[in-house]
Write a structure and sequence with these properties.
The protein has 149 residues and is an alpha+beta fold. 21% of the residues lie in helices and 57% in strands. The chain has a single domain, classed as Immunoglobulin-like. The protein has two helices and eight strands.
């Protein structure tokens, strides 16, 4: 292989990778069908469906990150994604997720139970970053999602 062909191939590869990953590779849409699996004073385990759009040439795996859960702007605990999600290139699809929230203190569990029993509507937020990995590309995706329930 000639030196010019090797250089052009390398330049093309760098351009494709750079252009594909320059913007936010994964867009997170609506969160629906939230179901509580287990709840106690220490935390809650749930499942949900989330709309994900991979705008990249590369497939991505979304894994846990550093996320915080809030109710009406009050921090309630640490949000943990308990399963990884595989996204094909240019895929737009609804994916099932499993997550848990470990409460900062036991009062949060009591507050959530009372709000549910009394039918109060609250604004739930998740803020932080999650990891999206593809081959040798690692991106942190900023999350700031709200849900009224």
């Amino acid at each position: 292989m000639s030196s010019i062909t090797l250089k052009l191939g390398s330049l093309f590869s760098v351009l494709v990778i750079g252009l594909s990953c320059a913007r936010q590779p994964v867009e997170i849409g609506e969160i629906t069908n939230i179901k509580v699996i287990h709840a106690n004073n220490n935390g809650i385990e749930c499942t949900a469906d989330v709309s994900l759009n991979n705008k990249s040439l590369f497939p991505f795996t979304i894994e846990n990150g550093e996320l915080t859960a809030f109710i009406d702007e009050t921090e309630i605990g640490v949000f943990t994604l308990t399963n990884s999600i595989q996204l094909s290139s240019f895929e737009k699809k609804i994916h099932p997720i499993k997550f848990s929230v470990v409460f900062k203190d036991a009062d949060v569990g009591i507050t959530l139970a009372m709000n549910s029993l009394l039918g109060r509507k609250n604004k739930y937020n998740i803020r932080g970053t999650i990891q999206a990995k593809s081959y040798f590309v690692h991106k942190k995706i900023l999350i700031d999602k709200s849900l009224f329930k």
